[in-house]
Design brief:
Number of domains: 2
Number of helices: 9
Strand content: 25-35%
Radius of gyration: 23 Å
Shape: globular
Number of strands: 27
Largest sheet: 9 strands, mixed
Helix content: 10-25%
CATH superfamily of the largest domain: Spore Coat Polysaccharide Biosynthesis Protein SpsA, Chain A
Oligomer: single chain
CATH class of the largest domain: Alpha Beta
Structural class: alpha/beta
Length: 410
Amino acid sequence: MNVIGVILGGGAGTRLQPLTSERSKPAVPIAGKYRLVDVPISNCINNDIKRIYVLTQFNSESLHRHIQTTYRFDSFSRSFVRILAAQQTPEGDAWYTGTADAVRKTLSHYKEDQAEYVVILSGDQLYSMDFKKMLEDHVSRGAEVTIATKPTDRRDAGSLGILQVDESSKIINFVEKPGDTPELTALRAPFYEEERYLASMGIYIFNTEVLKRLLEGNDQDFGKEVIPKAIHNTKVYSHIYEGYWRDIGTIRNFWESSLQLTDDVPEFNLYDVESRLYTRMRFLPPSKVLGCVVNHCLLSEGCILSGREVTRSIVGVRGVIGQGTVMRNTVMMGADYYEDEQKDSTSGIPLGIGRDCYVEDAIIDKNARIGDRVVISPKEKKDGVYENYTISDGVIVVPKGTVIPPDTVL
């Protein structure tokens, strides 16, 4: 089908601080070697959508660099992943003020593609989805807009955007965060014996001409403004998705979703050859384990593990763990480069985690330098921003490039 993909680069990502203090949400590392933006781009490529635009705004330099060095197609094909950054133009100098506004301000760049359909995706979700099936449903129903929906129970439905559908899957109502009220009961999905509600996943297919018409006004957001209005004068349908889907909106969500990838049979399968997850080729050496007991972990390329124990953790590219160190339930993002033990380190502390440390329930961002005998744990500590670390929902986060002296207890 004649279709293009548009990936929204996300807002400021304040709920993911400090991981987003120097990068945009889609640029946050996931599963050791990937970035979040690799998920929607890979989903597009796996479904033969190979004309892709990524709309960016906040802290976008590392995201731009990753995309430019990763996604290079045959120069004789029409395939591309193109970045559209917020910019001043003769028509206006404002930044994107919402999801719909971002697409409106970049519509002119899609004209040359003459695409019949536009698939709009979020840049900060974890899922693997068959867009071909969604497009087939869209066409066969004569839909003008199709929204991917996730069945959910009453407990979670009250805090989500819930779509009410009829027996033909046509959307007839939308309520944002209805709460546990009688209004929620009226939104119940008709296809299930048990009580189920259809939550919007923020994944849309639009007929291109319909998208242009819906964006003629000044609406800023798809979920809050464009879609609720479109229901009344446009053929809007639901496409139910039963697979794994997770919105990476908070530190806790990110930490839990990451560690679930270390399960025996994770819901999000990185080893599915039919739905590959693509990323940058780094040509790093294999990881090396020197006497360390490693259990239920993902190890990226170029790691050196000399510790005593690493359990239910992720070690990112070039991750170094010193002798005697114990690390549990931790996402360690690794480093952007190698160095000699003291090279380029004014602190004298090398990259990675030193000797005889104890780390649990943590996220260690890239290029951190953690000295010997350091203890990192959120136990018995309140949420808040502290010197050299943050605690959010019971997870301790060491920001990118942080230096922690030896014998420190966080």
